[in-house]
Amino acid sequence: MGSSTPQLVILVFFTTFLSSTPSHNAAHGYSYSNDTTAGKCGLVDPPAPPPPPLQPSDFLNMRQYQAYLVIQAFKATITCDPKHVTASWVGSRPCHYAGFFCAAPPDSKNTPTVASVDFNGFHLCAPSLAGFIDRLPDLALFHANSNNFSGPVPDLTRLPYLYELDLSNNKHSGAFPAAVLPLGNQLAFLDLRFNAFSGAVPGSVFLLSLDVLFLNNNRFRQRLPAELWSSPAPYLTLANNGFTGPIPSSIGNASSVLREVLLLNNRLTGCLPYEIGLLRNATVFDVGGNLLTGPMPLSFGCLVRLEQLNLAGNLLYGPVPDAVCWLGWVGSLANLSLSENFFTSIGPSCWWLLRRGVLDVRRNCIPGFPDQRPVAECVHFFSFPKFCPFLPSIPCAHFPDWPFKRAAAAVANGEAPLPPKKNYVGYSALHNRPGY
Ligand SMILES: *[C@@H]1O[C@H](CO)[C@@H](O)[C@H](O)[C@H]1NC(C)=O
Ligand SMILES: *[C@@H]1O[C@H](CO)[C@@H](O)[C@H](O)[C@H]1NC(C)=O
Ligand SMILES: *[C@@H]1O[C@H](CO)[C@@H](O)[C@H](O)[C@H]1NC(C)=O
Ligand SMILES: *[C@@H]1O[C@H](CO)[C@@H](O)[C@H](O)[C@H]1NC(C)=O
Ligand SMILES: CC(=O)N[C@H]1CO[C@H](CO)[C@@H](O)[C@@H]1O
């Protein structure tokens, strides 16, 4: 009993002291903290009384109190929590809850509140995010990779600071979440990969001023929209969906913007546009596993920063241009995947790439090469008329830094090719782990 006496004194002191002030912050903290001590002195433990609900005055500021109410309401809807993260979602300090991070919003520098929610890998289940993220008005980032969230994405227009939205690897389905569109230019990162979204992606998505747009591994099904290459996003990943139609030749308009373009495993058709060769800053161009046809444009020899070029698993034919293989010498090309097409020959400088394992031409129609398609398959393919144009010019040939010229100098100087980089934003998005 002795230990409760000083506390009682303090309690009385605070109660007296604070009775004249509107705030009961400290007094409240003490008023119930040791209610059960009495039971230890008596014969019977009384049933523990439920803790009285927290009051606004228990919190550092009203915004944290509001966030607390929203979090508790959301917690009540959670149906699975295998990592027991919500066990920490108790008490008057929401900034200390697992997955919640606080900062002072720009409009209120002295009231830190929930600015970021990172549930990556928590594996929580909840039927809806409505009433949760849309009611945390100071939220700037919401990351929820690998949870079991479903239901519609709520209206987020009252979140003026939200700029990163990652709903990847959840159980969202239905139409593209139109709720993100009104966010307009405030959104920089939109990651919806590994869900079951279906239907069409509204063209206006590609007008958002995003840095990163990951739509891969959903069930989107539509012709590639005309607006696609208006997107300012350097990292575009639309892989593993049902996109159809040709690659719009307006890709040339995005020549300085695009870094990594991943369109693999869709149902794209048509010829490879010559304008792809204008993507001077691209490091990854991957359209493997589609129904693209035509010869490989000579313009591809201008892709001096390209490290990964995957055209495998299409209906491409003709020679593999020598100009493209030069990129493995003096450009940055580390992987030229052309298998499962109908190419018929390779340029002389391609041999070296073949020996280095950079170039893969298995399952084509190259006479005398190992692992090629049966002759009958090649004959059948070439028996159909071909309509794709072939421009015999290289658009960068007159540029002083054209690879051919540098190649000649490099070979003369005995220079070695550049080592490939390893960390690709787009390829990391093809796994269902957090991508960024
Ligand atoms: C998440 O959903 C999947 C598929 O609906 C299910 O197999 C899995 O058990 C769920 N996870 C948890 C932790 O409930
Ligand atoms: C691409 O640029 C050309 C001019 O170079 C312009 O006429 C065309 O409208 C642009 N296309 C798109 C889709 O912005
Ligand atoms: C494209 O590359 C050039 C030359 O390195 C660079 O100046 C420019 O900023 C790059 N463009 C983008 C959008 O990154
Ligand atoms: C080259 O790229 C293809 C297609 O993306 C991939 O399957 C292959 O593993 C890569 N090869 C190397 C050596 O990285
Ligand atoms: C229930 C409760 O909060 N009990 C506390 C009472 O005070 C003692 C001494 O400070 C604490 O050890 C108990 O946890």
Structure description:
The chain has helices at 4-18, 25-31, 37-41, 62-75, 322-325, 350-355, 375-382, 403-413, 425-428, and strands at 100-103, 113-118, 125-126, 141-143, 148-149, 164-166, 173-174, 189-191, 196-199, 212-214, 219-223, 235-237, 242-245, 260-262, 267-268, 284-286, 293-294, 308-310, 315-320, 335-337, 342-346, 359-360. It is an alpha/beta fold. The chain has a domain at 4-41. The strands form four sheets. The protein has a twelve-stranded mixed β-sheet with strand order 1-2-4-6-8-10-12-14-16-18-20-22. A five-stranded parallel β-sheet has the order 7-9-11-13-15, with no helix packed on it. It has a three-stranded parallel β-sheet with strand order 17-19-21. The chain starts with a helix and ends in an 8-residue tail after the last helix. It binds 2-acetamido-2-deoxy-beta-D-glucopyranose (5 copies). One 2-acetamido-2-deoxy-beta-D-glucopyranose binds next to loops. Residues 288, 310, 312, 335, 337, 357 line the site of one 2-acetamido-2-deoxy-beta-D-glucopyranose.
